Amino acid sequence: MALPWLNDQLAALKPKALDDFSRTTITGAQHALGDFDNPLRLNFFSTAMRILFEHMMGTLAPVEEVIQSQWFVPEREGSVPTRGQRIVFAIQGGLSDAFVKDTLQVDIAPIRKKLIKAVDNLSKHVHGREDTIIEGRDEQDAAASGAIEALGNFLDTYHECRKTILDAIQDELDDTTVDALMTDTILEVDELATHHSVEEVYVDTTSVRSIGAHFITYRATGTIAVGLQWGSNSDMRRGDGAEADLSFPFHCDIRSRWTIRSTCLSAKPNTRSI
Questions:
Q1: Dihedral sign, CA of 154, 59, 207, 8?
Q2: Total-model pTM
Q3: Which terminus in the chain has less CB density within 10 A, N or C?
């Protein structure tokens, strides 16, 4: 593996990573840095980290979503978003710059600047030329450390923005989840018995799943307590029916639209699963 301090830097990225593939690329970067006899050690590390960056942008900032954002202004031919604009969208989605900076107190500008510089450097090493290869161990380590730091800061800001948004409307989301599950027919439960009633809803966790051009999507998870009845009320009176109280785990996805001023409105569940 890499030098202990570099390995620790890379290992610290894994809990922040988006998914298993992201963690795989980080493991690949660790192995590349551990190959001390390879003069192209930095180049192979840079390839793994560039794959990680491109995967994050593809997941968090699809081009078709970025260009729908109310803050998007084309900066190059064909209205193709720049790398900087995709980094901004990956963190804040369609939320306005003013809302993110003034209300959420998240400053993206320095993160964007450092990450763009880091990715430019990664690209230089990915497309290495005779006059760009860095073979000195200390120089390789310094370059690798700078790239890891920039990606780590990006992921920290990504998670910070989502946590801040969630904290701001946590109570509203919990109430929306409970109201939806108490009043709507839930197909999975309805298929279990002739009749059912929702008795209680316990919301354990809520998380931001995505911030798009027009909506924020949240996921609430918890437990729902239901009363089940087999047979009609007449069957129950004759003793031919049955009743039971059961609990089931659930998740509920909630979409919230905002206005141009980025005020979150109308949180409504759009999918549920028991």
A1: negative
A2: 0.77
A3: N
